[in-house]
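User: Assemble these into one structure.

Assistant: Restating your components, then the assembled model:
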Amino acid sequence: MADTVRLALVGCGAIAGYHAKAIRSIDRIEIAAAIDPKREAADALAGEHGVAAFATMEEAAAAVDFDAVDIMVPHDLHESQTERALALGKHVLLEKPIAQDLTTAERVLAAGAAADQAFMIGENSQYWPDVVAVDRLVRDGAVGEIIAAQAAFENRFDPFWYPGTRPWRFDLQRTGGGVVIDGGAHWIRPLRMWLGEIASVVGVTGRPIAAMDGESLAQALLRFESGLVASFLALTSPANLSDAPWFRVMGTKGEVLIRGGFEAGGVELYDEDHPDGRSLPGEHGYFHSFKPELEDFAALVLDGKPPVAPPEKALGEMRTALALYRSARAGEWESVWHG
Ligand SMILES: NC(=O)c1ccc[n+]([C@@H]2O[C@H](COP(=O)([O-])OP(=O)(O)OC[C@H]3O[C@@H](n4cnc5c(N)ncnc54)[C@H](O)[C@@H]3O)[C@@H](O)[C@H]2O)c1
């Protein structure tokens, strides 16, 4: 059996640079090609990593030997790109969300399950060091019984994530939603890791970024199957924001929080022994989640080891987003799993 995954990057936009950087620090994955119909995007990433650039997967497959693809394209292309990769016999790592709507997502999951190749949905917050550290603290009982939690996905509008004159992220048909189904998903998964499954949602949405069809603001309460309730904020703001914590988990013995930070976050524990808080040592920061995610994909391809979370786990973030959208329209609690 091969000891390295030869991986083609499909979609060479904003997130591809972060994936590629992580791959360079992983022994078991080698970048084999950069694929994007936008020639300059493919050329730039290919040049940086010393591989050839292609406009399509089929062209790449005819010219270069690779085993797997890392699909990082707009949401409405997730299904077609997954189908094409599986038809070429390639293993697939597909960025979240599974697709732009539930029916398509279920087809994508079925195609992945039916294939002989490895198939994984990339939900990197499952591997985010700060989130993993909180998971460990919660499981070890550091905050006692959880009472409440808060998650706030908030940042200033950054054109880097919205390239071009009419970015695909402005188009509801292409995204399936706004900030909740997109970046907000990475804040919903940690809550599910710590508090269990979400049963129902009540929320409101707004559009402070008026050019974007989907919501750039959501405020919601998430009720878990356990009965616990967490508050959830998702905001892409036109203005600068403070550095309020991204997550708080409050329990009978204390509180643990995650400080905001894409490059360097931080976990703090407040309890009886540390009334002013104690910072946890170790690696922190959202962007440090891609390396362990891609290592998990390599282990799936090379060793057949199941990933930390199966692909269908990502239905939870999608269904929570869709339930929040229904709730914003109806003004009522909406079930996540029925409806
Ligand atoms: N995990 C994270 O933190 C994170 C962050 C951002 C984006 N994402 C996800 O990554 C995906 C891409 O988002 P992005 O921000 O990089 O978008 P982007 O617009 O910056 O990049 C997408 C790229 O896909 C290319 N593309 C379009 N059609 C293609 C095709 N048929 N074949 C190959 N390439 C094609 C585009 O030309 C573009 O360069 C989305 O699913 C998004 O939700 C994840």
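The chain has a mean pLDDT of 97.
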